[in-house]
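SAMPLE LOG
Freezer: B-3
Tube label: C17
Construct: single chain, 200 aa
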Amino acid sequence: MHAMKTRGPQVVLVRHGETVWSRSGQHTGRTDVPLLDDGRKMAGLLATPLKEWRFAEVWTSPLSRAAETCALAGFGDVAKRRPDLMEWDYGDYEGRTGDEIRAERPGWALWKDGVPNGETAAQVGARVDRVIADACAVNGDVLLFAHGHLLRVLAARWLGLPPESGRLFMLGTASISVLSLDGDGTQPVIVTWNDMTHLR
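STRUCTURE (predicted):
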């Protein structure tokens, strides 16, 4: 048996459980859409796998779909609400599906073309950069409850990629992803991504 190498601190990302709009593919930014019953069940199923860690900090988006996921997973009493973890502000495209938008703007893609009267990818990137800096300053593991596009941008920025590279990372509802540092503690890595095995 080889001795296990001690690991560096980890940042664990949890996307909220399912909502009516996440199920239908509508862009859900700042609209406070609640969890479906299925979404609440998914949130409860997060409790067991998340017991594997001892978290020094737990942060959640203030939007109810993330905050309720956090509470149902068993962290409501310790979580701090962080506005920087709110979902991308989709502006005029809030509540609309990609197909609806492309009917007006053929070939439209959020990552390439952005949204009118909402946030740019760079603005979302600046928010997650603040979260990453604060998480790296914590002595221990950090748990984040947030949103699909926001967490995809956060993963890209963790790896030193531009915010638009979030397009490369698919993320399901109530999934768990783990970020860390490898080697001498300076190389950012993805340990696991989009783990949904607890939902089976």
